[in-house]
Amino acid sequence: MTKKTKIGKTAPAANLDRILAAASDLFTRQGFHGTSTRDIAAQAGVSLGNIYNYFGTKEEVFVSLLEKYEKEYFSPDQPLIKALSSTAFPDNIEQLGFASRETVEKFSAYILLIYVDVVEFKARHVAKLFSNMRAGYSAALKSAEAKPHHKPRSKVAPDVDPVAALMMVTWNYSNYFIMEKLFKVKGHYGLGDTEAVKLFARVFKRGILAGGRSC
Amino acid sequence: MTKKTKIGKTAPAANLDRILAAASDLFTRQGFHGTSTRDIAAQAGVSLGNIYNYFGTKEEVFVSLLEKYEKEYFSPDQPLIKALSSTAFPDNIEQLGFASRETVEKFSAYILLIYVDVVEFKARHVAKLFSNMRAGYSAALKSAEAKPHHKPRSKVAPDVDPVAALMMVTWNYSNYFIMEKLFKVKGHYGLGDTEAVKLFARVFKRGILAGGRSC
DNA sequence: CATATATGAACGGTCGTTCGTTCGTAGTAA
DNA sequence: TTACTACGAACGAACGACCGTTCATATATG
C-alpha cells in the first residue's frame, strides 16, 4: 500500500494517457475530422464528457499530441538526432540511413500526424517546424564538428554545400522509409531496407565526398 | 451561336466541371471529411441536390477527381513523363529535376489529393498507383533506351542498379518540390529552385555515372 | 408531350460541446 | 471509530448545429 493511491491489479494507466493513446491511434488511421470525440472516448474506455476535463476542444487533443511527440522526437537520445550529432557529416552517411529507418518506425505516429496537420489544417500547427529547417541542420552539423573527439576523415567536395548535402541525404532516407513504412509500399525500389541504405550511401559518398571516387 | 448551347455572357462552364473544380479546391485545402457537400455546392454555385445528379456520393466526387488527375498526369505530353521517356537515364538527370519541378507545380492538386487519400482513406484509392512502382520506372527506362534516336552517352556505375538509381533521383527531386511548393516551405535548403536542381544533379551524376568523377 | 437538369426543404443521424449530477477519496472534528 | 465537508474525477443525457442523402417539385429544352 503506497501513500499515493492503491495500485490495483490492472495497472491504472491514467485516463489522460489512455485518451492520448486512443486519439493518436484514431487520428493517424482516420484523420482528424474523420475521428469523433465519441470514438476517442470509447477506445480510451472513458466517458465522453471526461475528455473535456483534460482538454478544452478536440483540436487541443490533437495539438497536445503533436507537442508531446515533437518533444520526444528532438530529444538527444533519439537515433536520428544521435546520428546527426555524434559523428560529423559526411562520415556518417550510412549511419544516417539506418537511423532514419529506426526513427521513421519509432515515430510513425508523429509523422502521420504531421501529414494530418498538413492535409486538414494547412500545416498550421507544424509550420514552425518547417521554417528554419536549414538552420537546424546547420546547427547540428556545427555542433558535431565542434565535438572534442571529432576527427574529420573525409571532406565534402568543393562544389557541394555541406549543409544542403546533409539535408539531401537525410531527407532522401527519411522519405524512402516514410513511403516504405508509413504508406506501406513494401520494397517499392525492389530492394530490402539494408540494400537500399547501402545503395543510397554508395551514391551519396561518391557524389558528395571530395576526391573519393570509389567511396 | 453554336449548335450545342447558347454561349452566354459568362462562359457556361458546365455544372459538372464547376462541381469538380470546387471539390478539388476544398478537398485540397480542408481534406475530405472537413469539406461538406454544402461547401462544394456553394462554391460551385450549384444547388445541394444537383451534385447528386452527377455523383452518387461525396466519395464518388473524390474518386472521380483522382481518376481525372491520374489520367492527365500519366499522359505522354506531361513534363515528367516526357523527361522519363525522351532521353534515357542517366543522361537526363538534370532534366528530371526541372521536369519534377514543373510537374509538382502543375499537379499540386493531384498530389495533395493523394495525401488526403493516404491520411483519410488509408491510401485505399491510390494503392494501385503505389504498388508495382518499380515496374513503371523500369518500363519507362526500357522504352527510352529502345528509342531509335537514342545514343547512350553515359553509363551507370557497375555497383548501381539503374532502375533504383532512376527512382532515387526522381523521388529526390519530387519530394524536394513537394516540400517546397505544396507544404509551402520556401527555400528550405537555403537555395533557389535552379541552384537546388543543379546541386542535386552534380551529386547524382558523380554518384551514379560510371567513371565520371567531375560530372 | 417527354426528358434531362436543377432546386432546396426535409429526414434521420452524428457532430462537438455543455452541464447537472454522481462517485471516490482525503481531511477533519467529534 | 463515525459523520460531515470538500473537491477533483468521471459520467452521460441533452443541446443546437451540421452532416450526407433523398425526393417532390419546378424549369428548360426538344
Number of domains of chain A: 2
Mean pLDDT of chain A: 90
In what range is the share of β-strand residues of chain A? under 5%
Backbone structural class of chain A? mainly alpha
Distance between the termini of chain A: 62 Å
Strand segment tally of chain A: 0
Largest sheet of chain A: none
Radius of gyration from the alpha-carbon trace of chain A, in angstroms: 21 Å
**SSE arrangement of chain A, N to C:** HHHHHHHHHHH
* Most extensive protein-chain contact, per-chain counts: A-B, 50 and 50 residues
Oligomer: homodimer
Unreliable spans of chain A are 1-12
Using the alpha-carbon principal axes, give the shape of chain A. elongated
- Helical content class of chain A: 55-70%
H/I helix tally of chain A = 11
Could you explain the architecture of this structure?
- 2 copies of one chain form a homodimer.
- In chain A, helix 5 packs antiparallel against helix 6.
- Chain A is built from 11 helices and no strands.
- The first copy, chain A, is 63% helix and 0% strand.
- Chain A folds into 2 domains: 1-61, Homeodomain-like (Arc Repressor Mutant, subunit A); 74-209.
- The N and C termini of chain A lie far apart (62 Å).
- With 215 residues, chain A is mostly helical.
- The model of chain A is unreliable at 1-12 (pLDDT under 50).
- The first copy, chain A, has helices at 15-30, 37-44, 51-54, 58-73, 79-86, 93-106, 108-121, 127-130, 133-146, 162-182, 193-208.
- At the A-B interface, helix 7, helix 10 and helix 11 of A face helix 7, helix 10 and helix 11 of B.
- Chain A binds a DNA duplex (30 and 30 nucleotides) through residues 5, 15, 36-38, 46-50, 52-53, 57-58.
